[in-house]
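Trying the structure run again after the queue cleared.
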Amino acid sequence: MSAEATSPGAPIRRRGRPRIDLRRLGRAALFGPVSRDRLPDAIAHVVEAHRAHHPDADLSVLRRAYLLAETSHRGQMRKSGEPYITHPLAVTLILAELGAETTTLTASLLHDTVEDTEVTLDQVREEFGEEVCYLVDGVTKLEKVDYGAAAEPETFRKMLVATGDDVRVMSIKLADRLHNMRTLGVMRPEKQARIAKVTRDVLIPLAERLGVQALKTELEDLVFAILHPEEYARTDALIAAAADGPDPLGATAENIASVLREAGISSEVMVRPRHFVSVHRVRIKRGELRGSDFGRVLVLVGEDADCYAVLGELHTCFTPVISEFKDFIAAPKFNLYQSLHTAVVGPDGEVAEILIRTHRMHKVAEAGVVALGNPYVSEGAPQTAEPSDGERADPTRPGWLSRLLQWQQSAPDPDTFWTTLRADLAQDREITVFRTDGGMLGLPAGASCVDAAYAQHGDAAHACIGARVNGRLATLSTVLKDGDTVQPLLAEDAASGPSPDWLEHARTPAARIAITGWLDAHPQAADAGQPGAPADRDPQPSPPAVPETARARTATAVAERPDAAVRLAGCCTPVPPDEVTGFPVRGGAAVTVHRLECPAVARMEAVGRAPVAVSWGDEQACRVTLVAESFGRPRLLADLTEAIAGADAAVISATVEPPSEQRVRHTYTLRLPDAAGLPALMRAMREVPGVYDVSRAQHPAGAL
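Done. Tokens:
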């Protein structure tokens, strides 16, 4: 969109999809012939792509939308010198290639007009109808906040609200970001890096959640090139070298096609090259690439039953690698993805990965919700029809999106929203558990009884004392499995509340926000580390507390409270020379020290709690929690531990989360002999191969 208007120049060399010449597109937009009964030449590529998916589509509305967009943007230029109209044209072409229906393409052509020109929403509604107006308005609302480090959380909160009403809004936003990432070269390197990081942290996971793999993979490659140029160049060289060598997958594909022909199974067999990030992940995982690692064999058939017939023939005629078999047809992924995955060993010993799916599954795998058309009208109804009941219950909206919409309204501030959003997007799988009343709950993998309690009962779950899982009593920390039946047990004492330890077991944003809100409203219970209900409500042993004996002393209160115990807050783990403040707890018997920028400080001051001045004492040893994010590879944990030991830091506790998309998150609580050594320690950890970020934790170890 306008905030991201840039020029061509991104370093990605894509394979298989010809790139449209924007300068030629711009000339056609300005000077191409337009008659009353034909489309402008500038939109010919969009029309061709759209007709491939929707041969009977009414193209007159696209003509009118293009003419309005071109005239309203006339005179506006991108930073690269192209007419601005090339941007909405390129965004619309991306969506047309994915198979988006006419209403989405119409809104895409107009998506910047209300934001950047004199065109009004009333004009759009009058000429193109309520649905197009609704989509344009939804996309426009995402641009009301400037893109900056502080503005990003609120921007994406608005994005989710708009997406929740209509997933097509997010489809346009993703295509918009893809085109801007393709043409990011004119930006300053630091701005490129900032945009790439936001794309990596939020938009790529959202594209994954919406199932739009075609956008997700290209965005991953563009981000990879900007944030890791050396690794990208190395991967590019490996791909180029493999292209000049033998093609083991081609031979395997021919053998598979021959086997299926003899079996009488109608199919289409092809080799699908891996994208750059996928090749990089395979290299990190295996250390050395084989010729068959640069792609996978794709088999397309007509019916679901044919998929299993193909699988049977392949496992009969080739040697299967059983550990590689996955059935995503019987158990689809959370993002609508369906396919059979297997691998076979060829005569030359090469292992070939194989994907088996129907043509319909393939379309959804590539385009996700974009391929599902207009979710608000029945087949055969006008594409611009309004919802009959005024409500927008989107049948294409996955359960994870509904959950995000529920908890985003409860997030107390943008920072909390941002943190919980990233945590939720990091979940790559969801489970279904059953309630004893016959209902079902969709939860992320790794969710516990705490999460189930808040998902079912909301704030009433504050009084939860345990649960029954599959009919047996279980603690709140019990991790649920797909298909479990869970019954949270609530205490009759409605005044009781959660323990801070519950945050160690909560995986869903809804549960974490509800627990944190209660603890903030009851600071004495929270700071004292005492539950609001009897101590035996969850018999699990408490983990070691993150705060330790004070490394700070009260400055203005040593005389007033000489016996006060001082401890470091676990939410921000302050170390010298951080600027700090303190808050009395347990009636003044203790003081908890926080970093000044800790969100808890603002929350406690907002409810009237008076801070106490504190300063660092002479003892320089400190305790700190660090989070290392990396690509997974063998010996990564050993190398990180060696880097920590080399800085004379002692590991108090360590948590390694399950890998997600070959990315791994490590959380370490460490004791350093001298706080001055913290920057050097963080640099040493960042230099470990595969590690792309090391940061100070803002939450207790293992909380997110």
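The first helix runs from residue 22 to 31. Worth checking whether this holds up in the mutant runs.
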